[in-house]
Amino acid sequence: MKFVGVEESKEFRAFLRGPSRIGISSSKLNWKGVVVEEHSAESGERSAAIADRHILGLVCGRPWTGEHPDGRGGFISNPNLPGMITFIKDGSTVPAISTRDVCEHVLCSLESSFLNSVLDELEKRPAEELHSRLGFYDPPARQIIRLLIAEAGMGGPLGRLYADHLGHALATRLLLMGAPERRPRRSPSPLPRHLLQRTLEQMSDLHAELDLKTLAAESGYSRGQFLRMFNAAMGCTPHQHILQVRVMRAQELMRQKAFPLSDVAAACGFSSHAHMSRVFHQVLGVTPSTYRRSI
User: Among 283, 192, 291, which residue's Cα sits nearest to residue 242?
Assistant: First the structure.
């Protein structure tokens, strides 16, 4: 992690309770309902606070130990190891803590309205109410947080739709964490043909700022329903379809030898030649240069 100057984070004030050094941040990418940031906080004592949003903290860097009051005048020592996650529910108390080490986290905030919208889309309510949890492991949630901070670190090249998918997946994981397994459900019905055609026409504009919420609202379905019905109709997610359309358009332009690959990338909505190369290889298994030489 690379951190800049010391400052106080507005997004994670209740969790940090003091200045910290900030590394990567998604705050300027305008993601809906989700913000991720890298933070390095110095050792010291932090009093209890009330969280004003849902916050997930993923421990990174070196292990560190926090001491919490036990309510009887003593302290309880809790080791914090890389990969551990702490979840603080909006409106709940962030416990007082004393640390002797630098504490490095990737912090992720989820707006209550965003989490509630995901909860409304679930086909079955969680068995338990959402509550704060300290120092637990959850590999799927950890991987989603890492994907979010990686995307933020690159400046958001894959677009808001990709971040929206990850945020939705993280919220769903958080809501259903520890819930009993459910029986397999019936395959969802595909999106009606006229709605699918309209959606595909919107997605053919490779420079349009689209996100899952907008596409779902215009179809008349919830985000969860729209995602399942689009997948049933197309065999892929909206984000995957957009990438496939961009690659197909890039193939067309590459057949015209006059276009440099950097111009092809810009014309197809990729953030850079490197971004196009990465996606092109993921979809077709070859690089743009290799493909051009083969035609």
Answer: 283
Widest Cα–Cα separation across the chain: 76
Q: What does the block give as tokens for 178?
A: 């520890």
Q: Closest Cα partner for 136 from 33, 56, 203?
A: 56
The separation between CA 271 and the C-alpha centre of its own chain, rounded to angstroms, equals 19
**Strands 44-46, 85-88: parallel, antiparallel or unpaired by DSSP?**
unpaired
Residue 285 has pLDDT above 60, yes or no: yes
Residue 55 exposed, middle or buried by CB count within 10 Å (0-12, 13-18, 19+)? buried
Nearest alpha carbon to residue 106 among 13, 4, 177, 22: 22
Helical spans, DSSP H, in 61-190: 112-121, 139-153, 159-176
Look at the block and give the residue holding tokens 């919107």: 202
**Residues 110-146 pLDDT 10s:** 999 999 999 988 877 777 788 898 888 888 999 999 9
Q: What is the DSSP letter of 181?
A: P
Q: Which residues contact 136 (CB under 8 A, 6 or more apart)?
A: 84, 85, 86, 87
Using CA atoms, how far apart are residues 84 and 185, in angstroms rounded to an integer?
Answer: 32
Per-residue b/e over 99-114, b at no fewer than 16 CB within 10 Å?
A: beeebbbbbbbbbeeb
Q: Angle at Cα 20 formed by Cα 82 and Cα 141, nearest 5°?
A: 35
